[in-house]
Amino acid sequence: MTNPTIQWRDDGTPFSPRFGDIYRNTGSDGRGGLAQARQVFLQGCGLLSTAEEATAWAGAPCWAVLETGFGLGLNFLATWHTWRQDPRRPARLFYSAVEAFPPEPADLIRSVAAFPELAPLAAELAARWHGLLPGVHRLRLDDERVQLTLSIGDVQPALAELTGEHDTIYLDGFDPVRNPAMWSLHTLKAVARLARRGARAATWCVAREVREAMTAAGFDVERVPGLPPSGTHCRPAMRRAGRHAVAPSPMSQRVWRGRGAAWSSAPVWQAPRWRTAWRSAAGR
Ligand SMILES: C[S@@+](CC[C@H](N)C(=O)[O-])C[C@H]1O[C@@H](n2cnc3c(N)ncnc32)[C@H](O)[C@@H]1O
Predict the structure, then answer these.
(1) Does any ligand 1 atom lie closer than 6 A to the CB of residue 174?
(2) 56 lines ligand 1 (CB under 6 A)
(3) CA 52 to mean position of chain CA atoms
(4) Rounded mean pLDDT, 243-247
């Protein structure tokens, strides 16, 4: 049974009746959602290696990603998949996300129907996807090398449940006109608190009000050419340390998306609280 809060269109596009918006663009070949995840978010945050540049996480012992709007987990699965493929990946990947309306496990599986390379990862995620009542949940995946921390609830209190400084930020709410809470100044300040200095961020959203709110929250925002249909995206970078900054790290910026706008931020360096707990549990 699928979550009634998600409607699946004939072309495979997931749609939210609650917000009147799509989760992602499917594209003419059905693979647009994954292309967008890779280009807007992963490439935008420097997590795809290029001939000119190593990935941002190359050589790091661990890496922490923060996402607003976990949704169907496509960005997470794309990040996990890319991490697995990268010979210079950090030993551990920590991924924190907030989500008010978690989908059903069947939706996670259906979401990757056009992306067979993600199917095994989606199956592993779906197998652990239960009991997601409001609050913080930690899902250990990939022989505990990947830890997903889900803060279930409305975005601002859900962000308040998270601590630490993240290296990469994905901002992925619905259209800000339909979903203003995900893009408000208070939300962006809460995100900034969780970003380490120099962290790269990414979003598809280029709305002027959002860019202004991002700037006020402490991000340097640059517009760059992007994927259709918007054609432009933002490349934000955190210009100051978050509240819990310990030491700067050599990160930088970038980001974007495909429905209409994008951005990114810069992080700070302090292991999230759960990172210490994870290490302890792992006997390290
Ligand atoms: C565009 S979708 C995210 C897609 C997702 N990143 C993916 O890769 O599949 C936006 C998400 O934000 C969530 N959302 C919207 N408003 C929210 C709020 N106030 N608090 C928490 N989550 C919210 C929606 O439920 C939806 O899952």
Answers:
(1) yes
(2) no
(3) 24
(4) 35
